Every structure is written in C-alpha cells, then in structure tokens.
Amino acid sequence: MDWLRNTLLIGMVGVVMALVFQWSNFTPPESAVAQSTSRAAMPLDTPATDSVSDVPSAISNDQQPEIQISTDLIKVTTPQLYVEINPVGGDIETVSLIDHTLDQESGDPLPLLLNRPGNVYIAQSGLIGPNGTDGSGSRPTFNSEARSYQLSGESLSVDLTLEQAPGVTITKRFTFTEGEHTIDVNYLIDNQTATEWRGYFYGQIKRDTSAPLIDNDGAMQPFLGMATTKQDENFVKRDFEDLSETKYSANVNGGWVAMVQHYFISAWVPTTEGTNRFYGEPMANGFYRFGFTSDQQIIAAGESARFGATFYAGPKDQEKLSELGEYLDLTVDYGWLWWIAKPLFVALDLFHDLLGNWGFAIIALTILIKGLFYYPSAISYRSMATMRKFTPRIQEIRERYSDDRQQQQKAMMELYKQEKINPMAGCLPILLQMPVFIALYWMLAESVELRHAPFVLWIQDLSVKDPYFVLPIAMGVVMFLQQRLNPTPPDPMQAKIMQFMPIIFTFFFMFFPAGLVLYWLFNSLISMLQQIYVYRGIEKDAAKK
C-alpha cells in the first residue's frame, strides 16, 4: 500500500538519522592520565600472573616504584615505520606510520604509538617468572651496538643484549621486514649454567583513554579499546569502561590481543606454541593494559632457546591481518551485516584495481548494486506508474468514504483487485536496499583505503564530508526530481512529509563521508533514469493497444 511505502521511506530517514548521530556525535574521551606522567618516570608494568602458580605476583598498581628511564632511545627507520625503543625494558615507545600521513596538509607521518604527557600508548614486553628479568621491582637495562638503525635490505635485526648472570646471556631481538608493519620481538637465551632457566614471555599494550591523534573532520570513532579472540568466540571487544567494570581473562591456544581505533590497530600475536593467558584490566592513574603471558619456557642447563611474539602497528588491512592471525581481520568491524559488507568490499577493491580511483570504484559498485536490484526495482516502478494512473480514483474513494475508514479500505481493495494493482510491490526495493545501504555505510566507514583517497577536483578525501557540500546538494536535487515521478500520497500529512524528504536527506548527508554520499547520489540518479525508462515503456505499450 502507498502508506506502507511512505512509512518505509520515513523509516529509512530514521536509519539515516541514527547513522549520522553515530557518525558525528563522538566526543573524544578525556585522558585520565596525570599531567606529570612523562618518559622519565614510568611505573613498572609487569602483568598480573595470579593464574600461573610458578610466577610471583605482580607488584600492585599503588605500590609500583618509579624508574628513571633513559631518554637515549634506540631509533629505527623503515619505509613503513619510524620506531623508538627504550633500552630500559626494551619497550616500544613510539611508532609513526611513514606510509600514512597525519593529515593531507602537513604530510607528517601518522603517530600511532607515543609516550608523552597526556597521551601514552606503548607496547611492552619482557620476561617474568622464577628467572625473569621484569618481575623483581625493576626492569633490565639492555645494551645495543648503536642508537640509530635504518632498514636498507629485506630485513633488519636490532639486538639488545643483557648479561643476566654469569653464564646467562639474554638477547632481545627486534626484527623489521621490508614492506611490512610487523616487528618480531624474540628473546634468545643462552643458558650456560649448571641449572635450568625458567620464565614466561609477556607482551602487552599500555594506554590511557585519550583520543587518537588523527584527523576526524566530522568522522566517527566506531570503537576505541581492546579486541581479542578466544576458543568459543572469534571476536571479543571491550572498551575502557567495560574493563573498568570487569577485568578480562581467558586462556587461548595461540590467539592475539589488539588495541583498536578508527582505521588503525596495534596487536600482539604470540608465535610460541602452547596456551597463552590473555588479560585486560585498568591500572593506576587512568592507564589500561591488555596483553598475554605465554606458557612457561624451560631452558635446560647448557642449552639455548628462542621464543617471542609478533607486534603489528599499522592500518586495518584485511588481507595482512588475516595472514597474521586467525580472525584478526575481524577488527575491521562491519557490524551485524558483515556478511553483506565483506562481499561489497571485495567488489569495491576489484573495481579499484581496474579503475585506479576509489571514487570511480564506488560509482562502479553502485552500478553493480543497481543491476542486481534491476528487476525488483522495475516491478516497483511499474506499481508506482499504475498507482499514479489511478490516484484520482483513489482520492475520490477517500473523499466519498471520509467518515467510514472500514468502507474506504474495502473500496480501495476492490479497486486494487479489479485493476490488478499490487501496492506492496513498491515497498520491495526499499526493504531490499535498507540492509545494503547500512552495510555499505559501515564498509565505507571502516575502510582505511578511503582515508585521504582523492576523487576529482575538490574531493580530495572520500572518508570525510564534502567540504563545499556539492555532493549532498546534488543528491537532494536528484531526489526532488525523482519524487516528481512518484504518485502523490492521498493523505495530506504524508504528502507534506514526502515533500520534505529531499531536504531532510540533504541535511543529514552533509555530515556523511563523501564516498557514501557519492554512492547515494549515483544510486538516486540511476534509479530516476530507470524509473523514466520504465514509465516510457509503459506509455509505449499503452499507445500500441
């Protein structure tokens, strides 16, 4: 029925409103970090180990001693990463993405991990347990051959060495690979004593709640917090508030743990076989940590061993993430319509490979979607044409039985039956397109490939709103023209609401990313052209009779 079709359109406006509020109402959380926090005074950050009987309990948050950390950091540069490693503990305190800029104006590398007052986000790793170096109230100070390294070949290893005790040499090795955003962190332990060496490897991410330092011109922050996987659930996420209420703990064979933000991610992926204990919890002074501890590593007297994990810091590249860890690509979170969004991204990526421009790829994807919906849409437009033809008679019935709603509905149903009108046919394309529209919204919102991706002329970033609002205004004009082709709702109130639809859509789409508006503009344009084509076909068929 006509009222149902209009109700669905109004429902779509509600969906758009909900999405735009999700998009634009993000308020960056205030950092709870004390302003006095600095690199020169950081607490000891060994993980809790109460589930492992052989490992001494971690120092409580309120009793952690301060350690004077050297500012003479070890700097590593690759084509993808700029990294700073603290020789005290061997923590990764800075990661800047050279191949991703902070903003288009400055062209500066994007800072992902950093350690400064009011914004702390670092990757820590170490050894705990009976012979560990990080669980006795202080952290080890490593030696390195140099303070600056640059990748010039296929790979680069940066070794930090420590003479733990007579006969025990520990090397903490950071391995960088050309073209990758991964850092392999491994401990090489040479035990030339008469007793065995025992300990646990841990890797964790320590962070405050401050907002990421990326440009968010009207963009959303869909999720900020911890993500991981476990045996009975492929993808688990906990924001800071969740961790404040309930600590996270799970034992997983393999697994991974990640810090997730818009477009980018950092993650620890254990490479040691066995069961790892994953955890997430608040710390003192507004910090949070989430990470893992490995199974106990035992090195016999006179033997050597190697163990560790891979640390990733970079964009949410689905292909790379799926190769790195099982289900790690789920951190590209498409929501409950992922089963629609994933094929849409595959098609979009294919079109980009063919056309070389993400904007043109979106247009090509729009044409593909409209092609898939061609026949349902044609049925809808034929139904609209028929309804448009009989609008005067429908209006006459409404006026004749204005005081008797039951008789009015009966007369209209008789008219529909007599003229073989299916009023429900006009609702089908709207019902079909709503989940596709929502899935496409999340796909475009989560795709880092569109960040800073230019289209043409003034559209230099498809991930943010059109700076001059040309696309949403053009979309509103097309929607207005298309509305002229539709039958006028007999109900005056519905007619007024439908008149304002183009204005409402235009207003809300002003805050949407240009890539999504580009899709809706061409979707409306192609729909209008198809509607005109169907109408003319009906007129030609009528003229032949």
TrEMBL record:
Keyword entries, A-Z: Cell membrane, Chaperone, Membrane, Protein transport, Transmembrane, Transmembrane helix, Transport
GO biological process, one term: protein transport
Residues of the Membrane insertase YidC N-terminal domain: 74-346
Location of the Membrane insertase YidC/Oxa/ALB C-terminal domain: 358-536
Pfam families in alphabetical order: 60KD_IMP, YidC_periplas
Record carries keyword Coiled coil: no
Organism superkingdom: Bacteria
Membrane topology: Multi-pass membrane protein
Localization: Cell inner membrane; Cell membrane
Keyword Cell inner membrane annotated: no
Similarity comment text for this entry: Belongs to the OXA1/ALB3/YidC family. Type 1 subfamily.
Protein purpose: Required for the insertion and/or proper folding and/or complex formation of integral membrane proteins into the membrane. Involved in integration of membrane proteins that insert both dependently and independently of the Sec translocase complex, as well as at least some lipoproteins. Aids folding of multispanning membrane proteins.
HAMAP family the record matches: YidC_type1
Name of this chain's protein: Membrane protein insertase YidC
